[in-house]
Amino acid sequence: MFDDEYFMRQALREAQLAFDADEVPVGAVVVWDGKIISRGHNQVERLNDATAHAEMIALTAAFNGLGSKYLPEATLYVTVEPCLMCCGALYWSKVGRIVFGAADLKNGYKKTTAENWPFHPKAELKQGVLADECAQLMKDFFASKR
User: Fold this and answer.
1) How many CA atoms, within 13 angstroms, populate the side-chain half-sphere of residue 131?
2) What are the beta bridge partners of residue 35?
């Protein structure tokens, strides 16, 4: 049986792909019934699309793969706290569980929502899974830009 750390490591692999492509290194995977059904990493620069966040790409691939617009049995693993846009997508897709690694004080949903719940009312949230590793990848990326 795979656990949250295993799936977050898979999301970190996606984040590394973004890093290697000179994108902000955020990665995501969608898991259904213990299996990864989709993957995504930031492609904002590549696609010239401000909405091409890891979560959005992974969700779109999951919808297409399942032929469904709702994912109530799914868990989304993402390396960094989702932004408000991605929270909206998670809300409307009815993702049952969200797991993220590193907090994002500058762009994460908490900056805007404070402690208000931005996810679907039935969704569960777990934060801080492999937070240090997820944060380090972001720190390394932005240090390389200075």
Assistant:
1) 9
2) 32
- Based on the residue annotation, tell me whether 73 is a catalytic residue of this protein: no
Rounded Cα–Cα distance for residues 79 and 62 (Å): 18
Q: Which residue has the tokens 């995501």?
A: 28
- Token representation of residue 53: 């966040």
Instruction: Work out the end-to-end distance of the chain between its first and last CA atoms, rounded to an integer number of angstroms.
Output: 42
Helices 4-20 and 54-66 pack at an angle, to 10 degrees, of 120
Query: Can you tell me the distance from the alpha carbon of 52 to that of 49, in angstroms, rounded to the nearest whole number?
Result: 6
The residue with tokens 């994460």 is 108
Active-site pick, 5, 14, 23, 55: 55
The proportion of the chain whose per-residue pLDDT surpasses 90, expressed as a percent, equals 93
User: What is the C-alpha radius of gyration for the chain, rounded to an integer number of angstroms?
Assistant: 14
Report whether 134 contacts 101 (CB < 8 A): yes
Read off the pLDDT of residues 28-79 as tens digits, 9 standing for 90 and up. Answer: 999 999 999 999 999 999 999 999 999 999 999 999 999 999 999 999 999 9
3-state secondary structure of 134: helix
Token pair listed for 145? 């830009």
The reported pTM is: 0.96
